[in-house]
Amino acid sequence: MNSNLFGYTFKNPKLLKLALTHRSQSSQNYERLEFLGDSVLSLCISAHIVHSTSLDEGQLSIIRSKIVSKFNLNKVANTLSLDHHIIAAPKQTISQNIRADVLEAFIGALYLDQGLTACSEFIFKHFITESFDYNIKKDSKTRIQEWAHKNKKKLPKYSVIEQTGQSHNVIYTIRCETCCGLQATGSGRSKQIAEQQAASSLYEKIMEHNYETYS
User: Fold this and answer.
1) Residue 114: which domain range?
2) Would you please indicate which residues are annotated as catalytic (active-site) residues?
3) Cα dihedral 93/98/67/139 (nearest 10)
């Protein structure tokens, strides 16, 4: 197998093959590397937006969620023509989720093979552009409310499903759900942050299910 992909030559080609292999093809597949890549991506994006902006914690969470969302991962994967490199069974359909997961697995493999500097370079090149807009024009809660009004649906319901930590450092987990049966959860050190995280994840699901959406 070719050990070069997206401009990076792997010292350990087996890592690259593993990152590109779907479970329909082998029990030795990308899932563990995806787990690692998700964390590396989140770390690199978090460090970049903290360094590059003066946004508060809640706004940083919204921006990071937007950048690392499955929807955005899928866009980047399409730009890289990742489908041509995925190793899967002949009848396996390459869905948006698979495409996004493989891209995260590639990042995880790159981290193990070449370290954080190479990952940061790759992520900055493909996820952050010079024209990236850090302005938060409409937060996810607003977008979902507008979607509900436009499509004559009930407004989303938010509920606290877990509260952990000491009184001075409480972490809230909140569920956001719509009448369509879609739901998502989010966590944060305030209910507002947790609600925004949940709404961001839910809005992503609305887009993935091809419901009518708009900016």
Assistant:
1) 4-127
2) 38, 104
3) 70
